Amino acid sequence: MTVRKAWIIASVAVGSAMAFVMLLVVGVYVVAGNLVNGVVGGTKALAKGAVPAAYSAIVQKWGNLCPALNPALLAAQLYQESGFNPRARSAAAAEGIAQFIPGTWATHGIDGNGDGVKDVWDPQDAIPSAASYDCQLASYVKDVPGNLTENMLASYNAGAYAVIKFGGVPPYKETQNYVKTITTLEESFAAPASRVDPSQQAAGAIYYAQKKLGTPYLWGGNGTAADNGRFDCSGLTKAAYESVGITLPRVANDQYNAGPHPQRDELLPGDLVFFSTDPTDSRAIHHVGIYVGGGYMIDAPRTGAVIRFDPIDTSEYFGATRVTEDGAKALPTTV
Questions:
Q1: In the chain, fewer beta carbons within 10 Å around the N or the C end?
Q2: How far, CA to CA in Å, does 213 sit from each of 258, 301, 306?
Q3: What would the pLDDT profile of 213-241 be if each residue is shown by its tens digit?
Q4: SS3 string of the chain?
């Protein structure tokens, strides 16, 4: 009997399935108890494919422009602002991948690629301009008490004068939320320096998904009564984590940014695992499942199939995310 057949047989036997889930629960929480302090500080190199390949090198280069900035932080800002869309335009007339308003662009835009033109719609200009603007703000508040990076981000949101006036991040809820959001998202775009803690909700998410084994796939399905309880891949992972109080974005490529990214040999039950036809671009992710151990995931694979166990080691395996509550909360509702 193959390993795959053994897993499938186990999934249809209620007693065996419950025992399996309990083992996962115990395993997840034993590991959670043994790992402390979460993500360890260190390098802020970009996580694999977290930034589209077209922009990865320029984010890596300009993200090191000054000590208050790093590539993962710059990537987090770009994702928050536009979802890496170079044609983005907001209702407030903010433009391009870095969402500069015309007045700020006129003052702080630079010719990043040296072609003699400062073009807000060209990421080769807009990304360097965003880094340059960040570092200018950092220079304005370098003597303010507290964390320089947080003061820089607060200046981006509320202005350097407010940071100077209040001696640090000002007591504005919007500004405080912005600082927390970007610094949390930073961890999603950084390659972890070491192992990261499993989510305390991981076992519950697996338990939810386990109960859905055998459910037919439905494109766009969220498991609602209108969907007859059916799901697509990201609908299943969203519902699984929602069952334990964590709200994920609806689509798989945004779910990738809900926490740090363990390596393949560091996977733990409950991690989300992602698949893409482009190994260099998380925005090209087209499939997601919930890792359960032993090289397998629970996923809703495609039209005509049912929720089932599948191996993760395919040619399209992209990477994984260890979902955190703060990481999920930091994600923009639309990008």
A1: N
A2: 24, 12, 7
A3: 999 999 999 999 999 999 999 999 999 99
A4: CCHHHHHHHHHHCHHHHHHHHHHHHHHHHHHHHHCCCCCCCCCCCECCCCCCHHHHHHHHHHCCCCCCCCHHHHHHHHHHHHCCCCCCECCCCCECCCCECHHHHHHHCCCCCCCCCCCCCCHHHHHHHHHHHHHHHHHHCCCCCCCHHHHHHHHHHHCHHHHHHHCCCCCCHHHHHHHHHHHHHHHHHECCCCCCCCCCCHHHHHHHHHHCCCCEECCCCECCCCCCCCECHHHHHHHHHHCCCCCCCCCHHHHCCCCCCCCHHHCCCCCEEEEECCCCCHHHEEEEEEEEECCEEEECCCCCCECEEEECCCCCEEEEECCCHHHHHHCCCCC
For 236-281, write each residue's pLDDT tens digit: 999 999 999 999 999 999 999 999 999 999 999 999 999 999 999 9
Rg (CA), the chain: 21
Please choose, from the candidates 333, 171, 335, the residue with its C-alpha nearest in 3D space to the C-alpha of residue 249: 333
CB 56 within 8 A of CB 280: yes
Question: Is residue 133 packed enough to be buried (19+ CB in 10 Å), middle (13-18) or exposed (0-12)?
Answer: buried
Q: Are the C-beta atoms of residues 215 and 230 closer than 8 Å to each other?
A: yes
Please compute, for residue 253, the number of CA atoms within 13 A of its CA located in the half-sphere on the CB side. Answer: 20
